[in-house]
Structures are given as C-alpha cells and as structure tokens.
Amino acid sequence: MEAVHFDNVRYSYREEGGEYAVNGVTLTVREGEFVAVLGRNGSGKSTLAKLINALLEPTSGTVTVFGMDTLDEKKTFEIRKNAGMVFQNPDNQTVASIVEDDVAFGPENIGLPREEIGKRIDFALKAVGMEQFRHATPSRLSGGQKQRIAIAGVLAILPKIMILDESTAMLDPKGRREVMEVVRRLNKEQGMTVILITHFMEEALQADRAIVMHNGEVVMDGAPEEIFARSEELESYNLTLPRAAYICKKLQEAGMSVGNAFTAEELAEEICGSLQKG
Amino acid sequence: MRIVAKGLKYVYNPKSPFASTALDGVDIEIKEGEFFGIIGHTGSGKSTFVQHLNALLKVSEGYLKIGEYDLAEKKCNFLELRSKVGMVFQYPEYQLFAETVEKDVAFGLKNFRKELNEEETRAAVKEALETVGLDWNAVKDASPFELSGGQKRRVAIAGVIVTKPEILILDEPAAGLDPLGKKELMELLHSIHGGWCKTIVIVSHDMDEIAENCTRAAVFSAGKVVMEGKPSEIFSRADELLSLGLDIPVTAKCARILQSRGIKIGTDFTCDDFVKQVLALRGKGGERDDE
C-alpha cells in the first residue's frame, strides 16, 4: 500500500512563486518502508517532510497520505494523526513539566477518553524504553532521553508514518544510538513507515532505501549500498561516503582486492579476507 | 597562553536539594598552539569546564590559570580575558541578531575595544569576515538571517574571532552541517589555527573528527578527565572508551576487529594513515604477530 505519494510536487516559500524549495518531485513511499532522505543543507529535505503532514501545502502538484490529499482541509487532522513528526531540537518539542503529561498531549488533542490515554502512555513509553521515567521532569533528562520522549509523544497517537527531521543531530553518540534503535525496532516490529532525514551517512545504511535531494529534486533513489557505490555522483551533490566506505574506496584505488564495504565490520571482513588470500 | 586546571570543582545549585556536581576535580593542561579536542558524553562536565575558560562560570573551588590570568582570583581582569579567550557556542547562528552582517560582527569588538574608531572597526570586521571565507562586499549589508546555514555559522564565528582571541573554544562547531559543510568548517579552523588564533579547543561528539584534526584530546567522564593524550593514544584504548559509553572512530572499530583476528595494525586512526598501514600489511600476507 502507498503510504505517501508525491505527484510532480513543487513548493515555493515565496508567494509570487519561483525558487522552488521542492521542484517537481514524484515519489512513492510504501507502507512499512524505512526511507532515509539525504542532501546538503538547503536541498529541500525539510520542506519535503513538511509537505507530507500538511504543515506546508504544495504550490503545485499533489501530495497524498494513504490516499488523502493534503490540500483537503477536512483531512488535515486525519493526515497528521497518520504522519507524526519528530524535529531536531528536543527542547523545542517539550510541552509539559512531567513526562507522562508531555506524552499525553497528542492523545488529549485528538479527544481520547482518559483510560485510553493512560494505555497509550504506557505503550508509547514502553516502546521507547522510557517507562521508568514516567514521572520525571523532561528538562532533567539527557538529549537522547528527551528525544525518545518526543518520539513517544508521536507514538501515542498511533501514527502509521513517523517522519524524523534530523532528530539525532543534536545528540551525543549514545543518544543517537538510542534513538536509532527505537526507530529501527518500530519499523521492524510494528511495521511503522519511517522517513528519516539525516546528515549522518552511517544512519542511512540502516534504511531499506535512500533518497538524495539536490536543489529541490530527487536525484538519487535506491538501496543505500547502491547509492554509496556511486561515490562521484554523491560527491557532486556535496555528500560524502560513510567513512568505512571511503577507506574501502581508497584501498581499492591503491589496487587492493577488497569488495565494497560500508561499515567498520564489513571493512574489517574485507581486509581480513584480502590479506589472508595474500 | 597555556591553560592549566588543577582540582577544579563545580557544583550546580550548591547547598540545595538539586545540588549536582558537574566538575569533580579536573586536572588538565592545554599548551599554547594545540588543536585540542574535548570528548565526553552528555553530562560528563565538558561544557561546564569550557564555560570556565572564559569565566562564564567562576571558579568556586580549585585552580585555573590561563596564561597570566588567575581565574580563581577575584581581581582577575575578566573583560580582558574574555577578549583573549573567544567562545563559540553550539549552533552559534541562533545568536545572530543585528540587521546586517557587518553590525553583527562588530558588536563584540565594540564592547571589548571601545577605543577603536569607526574606520578601524570596519577594517577589523572586514578582515574577520574574509578570514572565515565570506565575500565582504556580498555579505556586509545583508541580513544575517538571509544567509545559508553554513554562512550564518561563519558569520557567528567571525563575530568571535574579530577580537583576535589567542584561544578559540568551539562547542560542537560542525554539528548540524551537511558533510561538505563539516569538512569546510574544519578546514577553516585549521586555516586560522596558529596564526589568527594560537590555540583551538573543540568539544566534539564526532570521534572521527577528533582523530582527523586534533593534536591532543581529553576524555571527560563524571566530572573528571579520565584520559588525556594524542588521539592515537586515546583511541588505542578503545575498550575503555566503549565502557564509558563513548564511540570510537571507524578506523579504531575496524582495527579492533582486525586485532581480534590476529592482524595487528599500528595507526594514528586517521583515514589516510589507516589506508597506508593496511596497504603496508599487504604482501606480508596479513602476517600474524606470532609468526
């Protein structure tokens, strides 16, 4: 099933048009897919994300979420229930002084009964591994913990799609790992459709599919390994290879017979194999 | 100017139920001319420490001297110190405020160097903007908010280096930038290191960045410095770093796996050196230690 569909979508931040931040994007994301969106600063990634849950309306073309047109105002509420969004700065996404109240904010807004909200909080906090912090104060949590609370807040409305807009950018490596683990688990175990915008090439490797945006257009689309095998093209869009892939490429260029590797583990495997062959 | 801290302690909300010890006896020495890295996970005390360096936090216990400035001394000339120890915060572009780039960069300078006339101020601002790689004529009258993310960050850095600080401290300078932006920013820091600013101190979560750029680094954990040395020394203690919940560079991860397979590789953990060392092993047929 199509979770998100873009049909020749353009978006301009200027009223009179011109300078399209998203420029003629046609794209389908299937339910259950884990898609990473890459691209330099200003390439249109965040605009693309905001078009999905009707925070922005396309200047031309159509965006549908599970068949619902984002231009149809009657559907806006339903679309946002289905497509939850987590932003970059955890501090800007906290609305309450107690974790459970913060997570309850979404379900309260969609008018759920009290008992149901309680259940949703239990489920969401458990899903992100934060159930022991139910009565904690968000401001006293670490960045990774706060971001997991933000994810829980989105989960509590039971969306089918989760959009993360550079949600790990401000976190330390541990916080980043925590968030990525939660996201991966939601995708694998609950079939959540995930759209992950990131500058970390290593994170893109965890996705099923990677999309590269440049000047508002989708210029590459494929399995992350396929994308990273086209390193020159990638560099022309101001992106770099994951470091392990970069080292691997250098070894290949020096004439060492190593196969493509994208992670430290794969690289070690290739080097081992090559050295032992002699 | 050399930075020396001994037994530096700091407690937030002391004598209250919320008291929390952020620094628990920090001993560190950062020599003039270093490109120093500070590593540690959230809450390890690294930000509290760097905030001491230009006296945003005052020394409450212990010893901290930067060059001739004794920061534990009440009579210390903090204004002068702050013009010599520049601080660039995380996401510094959020602090831009003036209508034009020129006014924004001039703001700090005017506060520190009141004796400068308009012409001198303008010349200094121009030099700072050109140093961070911006075209003076193109940006001077522009609103800082119209610039791209990478350009904004450069303007913010120009606003700090315009006083020609001897020591420049940057908290996560490359966070949130795209890969090329990161690379360019690190190149910028190297270009001002040694000349414009003698010493550079960066706080970073990116271990690859530390391995590639720093002369030495310190690892903070629970308010103390638990490791200090060259990146090659620090990252050869991968197991300790991992047990502290920290990451290690990709090169170190790879070297660690190779080592477990009996392939020993000596490297400084930069990508280029790692490639060189692997290529050197070739031909030896992945010779094992015991052979």
Q: How much helical structure, as a percent, in the residues of chain A? A: 40-55%
- Our count of domains of chain B comes out at 2
CATH architecture of the largest domain in chain B: 3-Layer(aba) Sandwich
Mean pLDDT of chain B: 92
- Beta-strand fraction estimate of chain B: 15-25%
The strands making up the biggest β-sheet of chain B line up spatially as: 6-7-8-3-9-10
What name goes with the CATH superfamily of chain A? P-loop containing nucleotide triphosphate hydrolases
Q: Which CATH C-level class of the largest domain in chain B is it?
A: Alpha Beta
Q: What low-confidence regions of chain A span 5 or more consecutive residues with pLDDT below 50?
A: none
Beta-strand proportion of chain A: 15-25%
CATH topology of the largest domain in chain B: Rossmann fold
Sum this structure up briefly.
With 278 residues, chain A is α/β, with parallel strands linked by helices. Chain A is built from 11 helices and 10 strands. Chain A has a single domain (2-241), classed as P-loop containing nucleotide triphosphate hydrolases (Rossmann fold), CATH 3.40.50.
